[in-house]
Design brief:
Elements (H helix, E strand, L loop, with lengths): L15 H7 L2 H4 L3 H17 L5 H20 L11 H13 L12 H37 L4 E6 L2 E7 H26 L1 E2 L15 H8 L3 E2 L3 H6 L2 H27 L7 E2 L18 H24 L14 H23 L2 E2 L1 H8 L6 H10 L4 H17 L9 H7 L13 H7 L8 H17 L1
The protein binds arginine.
Pathway: Amino-acid biosynthesis; L-arginine biosynthesis; L-arginine from L-ornithine and carbamoyl phosphate: step 3/3
Protein name: Argininosuccinate lyase
Pfam family, one: ASL_C2
């Protein structure tokens, strides 16, 4: 009964260790719904071209429904002697229908079957992830709206640079994740192509109607070349690349939030629900969710390399190496879903600590560029103003002063162009709002971005 469906050519059955080595059920059993969906479409097409009678088709469709039920309920367990999801489900159909069940594989190979199942599976997985990225983008937009009036130091080289709106920070990640969303959409479009009918590699002598199965399975178009069809895995690489850039972004964001939650920075309070304590130190509140997000990045990035390395140098067309194409991708799907499920409520639950941010705004001479540009407005060439303000910063550090502490005489010692109005520019909030360049941190610009962001989310 558990004879392989291809056993006719063989005098002996495979060694037990070979069966274990060969099976792919631990991963491809997840594709059972898509496999049954593919078989239904294929069966309908075989009826459409006169290979199955109406009666036969109905029996097959009913049996496939029952099999789905059996797998859903867990009453049908796959057998490793039957290698993979495709042969397990087909064997069950034959078990139920006898010779009629044996007709379903007419004109079909596991090579175009697995391509079909996988593309169906990836369309759904990609759509699910897109939905979660959208929720995350909404959370970022809401944060930006809430935190637009909070001024924080902006950093380059992790050194104080210029003051920015915290809303501007959130919008920076909004745009990064919007591009990730577009990359997932592009991966979806590449995936949305019907492979069924390519056969093992060369098509079929039977008059298979690929347009019929395409329509039935909801693919946009048919693949153009059967050799390409059974060997193509680059739609998966595209998905993995989209996932990789996404996790590069989530890990960078996590890193900032981890730093901001330290007592040294103390810019934000993380929600308790996404932190953990220490088994020894009662005082600890650790940002574990963010650290895990940073850590899980490696598993996703290696998924992309895993599949690229698998594909490198493979001759056309199908090679069994390709069976290893599911393990990394399924792992990536699982990880990306979890990351988004955690980060969305985590980001929404952050509380900015304005009181403890304030002292940071007086450190690091965040307004040095503003002072230099003030002198530019007094007609001093920028390179000179840069030097003047640099010297002023040196002077302040030496004498433990901030810009606010300087007397007008001290300012004028460095440049005669300084006037009393220099004190008017020394507000971080004003410094933020002066940066009205398109895409700058001024609140007017952040509001424009938020509006633009809302328009984009409506389209997706
Ligand atoms: N389990 C195989 C896979 O996932 C199905 C295709 C097998 N084809 C073959 N010629 N052995 O790739």
């Amino acid at each position: 009964k558990n004879k392989a469906l291809w056993s006719g050519r063989f005098a002996e059955s495979p060694a037990e260790i070979m069966q274990k080595y060969s099976q792919s059920l631990d991963v491809d059993w997840h594709l059972y719904k898509e496999d049954l969906q593919g078989s239904k479409a294929h069966g309908k097409m075989l009826h459409h071209i006169g290979i199955l009678s109406e009666e036969e088709l109905q029996q097959i469709l009913t049996a496939l429904e029952e099999i789905q039920e059996e797998v859903d309920q867990g009453t049908l367990q796959p057998k490793i002697s039957l290698e993979d999801v495709h042969m397990n489900l087909e064997a069950r159909l034959i078990e139920k229908l006898g010779p009629l069940g044996a007709k379903i594989h007419t004109g079909r190979s596991r090579n175009d079957q697995v391509a079909t199942d996988y593309r169906l599976y990836m369309k759904k997985a990609t759509n699910d992830i897109k939905g979660k990225v959208l929720l995350f983008l909404e959370a970022l937009l809401q944060r930006a709206e809430k935190d637009i009036d909070v001024v924080i130091p902006g950093f380059t080289h992790l050194q104080h640079a210029q003051p920015i709106s915290l809303g501007h920070y959130w919008m920076a990640y909004f745009w990064k994740f919007t591009r990730d969303l577009k990359r997932f959409q592009a991966a979806y479009d590449t995936t949305n192509v019907n492979p069924l009918g390519a056969g093992a590699l060369a098509g079929s002598t039977l008059p298979l109607d690929r347009e019929f199965t395409r329509e039935e399975l909801g693919f946009e178009v048919n693949t153009q070349n059967s050799l390409d069809t059974v060997s193509d895995r680059d739609y998966l690489l595209e998905f993995l690349f989209a996932a990789s850039t996404l996790v590069l972004h989530t890990s960078g964001l996590s890193e900032d939030l981890i730093i901001w939650s330290t007592s040294e920075f103390d810019f934000i309070e993380l929600p308790d629900a996404f932190c953990t304590g220490s088994s020894m130190m009662p005082n600890k509140k650790n940002p574990d969710a963010l650290e895990l997000t940073r850590g899980k990045t490696s598993g996703v990035l290696s998924g992309l390399y895993d599949l690229m390395i698998n594909i490198k140098g493979l001759p056309l067309t199908y090679n069994r190496d390709l069976q290893e194409d599911k393990r990394p991708v399924l792992h990536v799907i699982h990880t990306v879903n979890m990351i988004l499920d955690v980060l969305t409520p985590l980001v929404a639950g952050i509380t900015p600590k304005e009181e403890s941010i304030k002292p940071h705004l007086n450190k690091g001479f965040l307004l040095a560029t503003d002072v230099a540009e003030y002198l530019v407005s007094k007609n001093v060439p920028f390179r000179e103003t840069h030097e003047i303000v640099g010297n002023l910063v040196q002077y302040c550090i030496k004498h433990h002063k901030t810009f606010e502490d300087l007397t007008i005489e001290e300012w004028q010692n460095y440049c005669a162009a300084f006037e009393k109005d220099v004190y008017d520019i020394l507000s971080p909030q004003l410094a933020v709002d002066r940066r009205k360049t398109f895409g700058g941190t001024a609140r007017s610009e952040v509001n424009r971005q938020i509006q633009e962001g809302k328009n984009i989310l409506e389209v997706f």
